[in-house]
Amino acid sequence: MSPWIPQHKPLDRLAWKVFPANIMYLFMVGTTIAIGLYFQLPWWAFAFVFVPVGVFYFVTCMYWGAYLLHPWEKPGDCTKWISFKNPSDEAKYKGKRIDIETMYEMYFDEKLDFKDVDLMNVFAQRNEFVTYTFGLTTHVWFLLSQWVPETLTHTKRQDESQVVDHYDRGNIVDVRDEAEDDFYGGFLGDRMVYTSGICLTGDESLEQMQDNKMNQVCNLVKMKKGDRHLDIGCGWGTLVNHSAKNFGSQSTGVTLAKNQVAYATNVSKKLGTEKNIRLLRMDYRDIPNEKFDKVTCLEMAEHVGVKNFQKFLCQVRELMEDDGIFYLQIAGLRRAFQYEDLVWGLFMAKYIFPGADASMPLGWVVGQLELAGFEIQSVDTIGVHYSLTIKKWFENWVKNKAKIVAKHGERWYRIFHLFLAWSTFISGTGGATCFMITCFKNRNAFDRRQMIANRLKGDNNKTTIDLNKKFK
């Protein structure tokens, strides 16, 4: 089986070229001023007028901006790919495209199925039969009732509630004297790493890809024996255990999920790393004020939120020794967005990663790091590696369908079934990606000679050539 995603027809519809941003801003300001002057409001009240006016124009522009990308080159017939349970739905969509949000909601509610049992093949052809429109009654309601309030608050109680609800969904069960998460274990595999692996040859198993990734992270921060290592958002403890076992570090992992602590503790006993790791179940804001040589944070910072992002980075800086190294891995978006990116992002915020609003373009992340007093050593974009990883997750999920449905029901199986299929293409075609960023305190006294990058010597040239041949 090919490690790459199926052949598909990418669709480039550059939304930022169509979205009438300047016109929207003009109408927002102009309408606010007009209303304020007409009703003779005091100037401080203009801000309260601007909010609903701004929402109205934003929603209007998003809705009609998406339609400016139509008509499509040719009409699509979603019934070639979709089997509707209700005859009236079949008649409604016969010979027509279907909005992708309507499609996935009906799929979750078991109101439709796909005629091709391999959902990966269906999503490879999605641009032939779906549209990516901004729903007035669905997307707008979600934005106003959930996304905006969560983005503006990000309290400890809110963050803990979201993390626990998401990452403690499964149950830790004993299987042959080993711990297993009966939900996330259904796709993450033996390593239980909920982030991208690293593909070097195209022939690796999921476990080998994740081992490559753990080694790469440790090498980027120059992990060595005796290093005091802090992993913020440690998940199921794979990195702290790997670092302690293979690099001799004294690693501390922080997470809010009790299942993850239980799993990581069990693994540490198996690997013999109990004395070298420490697991703290707490909010990142409550991390003890200690000093660490190496700090890693793999795809947890998105949950910090835009509101708290700068405070979080300043906290990390204070937790580091002056000669320490910080590795930040964060999911990101492209600034030149397309409407599929937007609709996919709203789906993710609703069903998969609630509260993860700090997934931003690279320029924003780098700017925040530099503002917090960091110097960037290296940045790598690993969206393609993520696509390959998610494809393997998808295959595991399908293989374990019976167990997942028995434990957690058909609906949760379908949600993650679609999430994994869609995300394979999104990360493989640039709609979303992931940044591996290595940095350190921007101090004159920092010895920058130790950070000379091996990749500047051309060591990765052969890998690049091999990958191009493999995935051609």
From TrEMBL:
GO molecular-function terms, A-Z: methyltransferase activity
Enzyme class per UniProt: transferase
One of the GO biological process terms: sphingolipid metabolic process
Transmembrane segments: 21-39, 45-66, 415-440
CDD domains in the record: AdoMet_MTases
UniProt keyword list: Lipid biosynthesis, Lipid metabolism, Membrane, Methyltransferase, S-adenosyl-L-methionine, Sphingolipid metabolism, Transferase, Transmembrane, Transmembrane helix
EC number in record: 2.1.1.317
Source taxon at top rank: Eukaryota
A GO CC term attached to the entry: membrane
Entries under Gene3D superfamilies matching the protein: Vaccinia Virus protein VP39 (3.40.50.150)
Topology with respect to the bilayer: Multi-pass membrane protein
Involved pathway(s): Sphingolipid metabolism; Lipid metabolism; sphingolipid metabolism
A Pfam family reported for this protein in Swiss-Prot or TrEMBL: CMAS
Name the UniProt record assigns to this protein: sphingolipid C(9)-methyltransferase
Localization per Swiss-Prot or TrEMBL: Membrane
